[in-house]
Amino acid sequence: MAKKRRGMIIKNTNTKAVDIEMATRVIRVGPGEEKSITADEVRDPALRENLQIRAISIVRPTTEEEDDVLRRELFGERQGSLPGGVPGSLPPGVPGGE
User: 10 - beta bridge partners?
Assistant: First the structure.
C-alpha cells in the first residue's frame, strides 16, 4: 500500500513578507507567519526555490485534520481530495475528481 503524501506547514523566516507564486495559487506569508500547503504544492518549483534561498522553511508535516481544513478552504465544503491526492467524491472535471 502506497504511503499517503501529506501537506506541510511552512514558516516565513524572513523579516519581510514573502510572496510565493505556485502553479495552484499565490500565497503571501508574513514575517514569522505559518501557512499550510498541500502535498502537491510541496513539489512546486517556486516553493522549492524559496526553500533554497531560506526565505521560508518547513516546520512539519500537516496532520490529517489540518489537511482536511486546507482542503475545505481551497475547495469549499465538497468532500474529496486535492489534485494528485487520494481520489475522493469531487465531481468529474473538477481537479481531483473522478
Answer: 35, 58
Q: Which residues of 24-61 are buried (b: 16+ CB within 10 A; e: fewer)?
A: eeebebeeeeebbbbbbbbebeebeebeeeebbeeeee
Closest among 17, 66, 3 to 37, alpha carbons compared: 66
Q: Are 40 and 17 in contact (CB under 8 A)?
A: no
Mean pLDDT estimate for the chain: 81
- Give the DSSP H/E element, type plus range, for residue 34: strand 34-37
Model pLDDT, residue 90? 40
Q: Where are the alpha helices (DSSP H) in the chain?
A: 39-42, 45-52, 64-75
pTM equals 0.70
